[in-house]
Structure to design on (134 residues):
């Protein structure tokens, strides 16, 4: 194959990368990052929702390590194992990550959403715990 053909194929291959950004997206992202008030507001919302969720899940018997990111690990509940929790949330249209490896099989990874979304997660969790205890 010619070098030109290889270059064209590579250009095509990389054009489907989901992380590619056009110039306008880059400029808008830059402007958003420079808006400190907006950043601070968003950060506070994530931190508040994360704290609420950690406290609520711990009160329901989950082990939840502290987190400084936009996600938490929750699991090791005596009534609901990680896979059952994952499946129950999924049946209720709440998508979390489950990793079946030995070290993580008892946990799910929950991305912090809006306060309303996290309240829904806690409410569904309460229902799943009641069902599992029967």
């Amino acid at each position: 194959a010619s070098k030109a053909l290889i270059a064209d194929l590579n250009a095509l291959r990389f054009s489907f990368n989901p992380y590619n950004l056009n110039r306008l997206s880059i400029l808008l992202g830059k402007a958003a990052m420079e808006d400190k008030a907006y950043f601070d507001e968003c950060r506070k919302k994530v931190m508040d929702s994360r704290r609420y969720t950690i406290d609520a899940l711990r009160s329901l018997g989950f082990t939840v390590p502290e987190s400084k990111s936009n996600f938490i690990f929750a699991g090791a509940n005596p009534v609901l194992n990680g896979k059952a929790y994952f499946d129950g949330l999924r049946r209720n249209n709440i998508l979390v990550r489950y990793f079946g490896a030995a070290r993580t099989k008892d946990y799910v990874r929950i991305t912090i959403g809006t306060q309303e979304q996290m309240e829904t997660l806690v409410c569904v969790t309460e229902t799943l715990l009641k069902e599992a205890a029967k």
Remarks:
- The chain has a mean pLDDT of 90.
- Helices lie at 3-15, 23-34, 36-59, 82-91, 115-133.
